[in-house]
Amino acid sequence: MGAFILRLVVGIVLALIVGPILVVIIASFSSGDSLSFPPPGFSLRWFVEFFSIAEMRNAFLLSIVLAISSACGAAALGLLGAIYVARVRNAFSAVLQMLIMAPLVFPALILGLALLLLYKTVNMSVLPGLFIAHVVVCLPYAFRSVLTSLQSFDTTLEEAGQSLGAGPIRSFLLITMPIIWPGVLSGWLFAFVVSFGELNTALFLTGPGVVTLPIEIFSYLQFQGNQLVVAAASSLQVLIILFVLMLAERLIGARQIVQR
Amino acid sequence: MRSRLSKNSLALAVALPPLVILGLFFVVPLCYLLFVSFMTNSATSLFDLQPTFMNYAEIFSDPFYWLIIRRTLLSTAVVLILCLLLGYPVAFYAARLSPRGRLIMLMVMMVPLMVSNVVRAYGWVAILGRRGVVSSTLTGAGIIERPMQFLYSFEAVTLGLLTILLPFMIVSLTNSLATIDKRYTEAAYSLGAGPWRTFFRVTLPLSSPGIASGLMLVTFLTLSAYVTIALLGGPRYKLLVSLVFDSVTTFRWPRAAALSFILLLIALIIAVVIQLVIRPQRVQGKG
User: Fold this and answer.
1) Domains in chain A: ranges and CATH
2) Most C-beta atoms within 10 A of its C-beta, which of A75, B2, B148, B211?
3) Tens-digit pLDDT profile for residues A201-228
């Protein structure tokens, strides 16, 4: 009886979490003119419509480019930070770790506002400002991933390399990097996915002609009403994330992804 | 000596780039925001360089803001309690699965967690809206005559926030529950404790670090979930974060800054309360 109730609760919770996303995906393949359930038939017309709207297409492309570049930035900075935190144990190292992890829990909307004020004061243009914001928000994910793999790395291997005459940089590149690269890669993929869905920081930081996909979806929902092209845009978002996660699973295994 | 020196400077060079970026684009902007919150409102520029407490005083003397603060506290409390009550059974179930089963379960949690909140909130609009799943089903079954919507209410916002944040809670709890050493519960059983007593006296206290960290994460995310609140609460149902957004769109920068720090203060107070109630530190060793 107890086991049955437990399973029931698990089922209900999973339905509540996954249900809304499934509804969006089903709605996006509808052949109808507007949202209706059940959909009258299957078609790809809303995806065609999505790519024929210039703003949507541009937002989609910008989000992809921004996700790739900010994931590179976050992975590079995360790698550097993780090397320091894994190797040096002092108060500064603890502060650095806290600082890097802070954007993970810090209210993103307030960070967006603070950055907007700063950008307005120093006359920063929109695109670099948005890029930096994305790097800061994605950094904790990349950092954590690299740090986990560095902490399980056996440093005697590197010491062996150095005793054989390799400098610290050379031994790191030739010995450590090949062993920890799954951590770096999963950090990159995490950062990509987080940047691709980033919403609350970007809310204030987008500008005319520079709008990311989540913000475009949001403003469509607010100002143009409930159109199925939004469902197609959302569906694309979900499909790309699924694709990246599956890629991650293939490349580095599910355990790496879930451990975070 | 020389090699030690170069090693230290190399270490510093490694730490420098992330430190500089976060200093310039995280610490500095937030200090600047705090500074702006104490400046006078200006119609022409961002603010007038005249120190004042008016931004805070105006907020605290206005009953409307108190209403919104009370409402924010209430909805955060409801979301936190429901997240714990619904998330714990799922995590408990996941933690007792085989490692492979748990991996699959966590992967199922990961996908929604990664999908943008705007998409997940839109999912609820598609379910609860006038032409949504619930309305269509009820009209189809003849229970209601005309399509109706179930959006723009406390319940809709709570449901949206709850389902969006549950995966964070579940992942946090599952990781905590999965690391509890089985010998603790076995010891409790062998000493004659039943399953319920074992759960409340052994498993639940040992999972308290996971409970505390999950609840804190949910608190911070609830307080700043502007888009979810805007889409499901509409123009009528607003929380404190909505007022931050509204102040920005009306260019009242000092007001927006002051509201932000009140929001942060509330987050901090809730975090302290969580720490005091759950007391995760009391658990020694693994948990």
Assistant:
1) 54-259 (1.10.3720.10)
2) A75
3) 998 998 888 899 999 888 888 887 657 8
